[in-house]
Amino acid sequence: MRFPFDDTYITFRYAANIAHGFGIVWNPGGAHTEGYTNFLFVLLLVPFSWMGWDLVGVSQAVSVLAVVISAVAIFRIVDCRGQRRWPGLGVDTHVSDTERANAVGPYGIFAVAFFLLDPFTWLNAYSGMETSLFTMWLLLAVCSTRPLGLVKASPDLKVRRYTPFLCATLAALTRPEGAIMGGILLVVGLISMKDDRRTLLRQFRLVFVWPLVLFAAWKLYYFGNLLPNSFYVKVGQVSGATFLPGRGTMRIFYTGVWYLLPFAAMAAWMKRKDRVVQIVVLWCAMLTVFYLFSQLIQNEYQRFTNSIEVMLFVLVGFSLMQIGMKGWIKCVVLGVILALNIFFALGQRGGLGYIQRVDEEQNAYTKEAEVLRTIPDHEHITLAWGDAGRLPYFSGIQSLDLVGLNTNEIAHAHTADEVVRFIVNAKPEMIIIPLVLPRDDTIPNDTCRRILGRGHGLIGSSFPKLAAAALASSYKPIAMMPQSIYDLEILADASSPHYRDIMKTLVLRIGHDVNFLPPAKVIKGF
Question: Could you give the CA distance from residue 213 to residue 203 in angstroms, rounded to a whole number?
Answer without folding.
Answer: 15
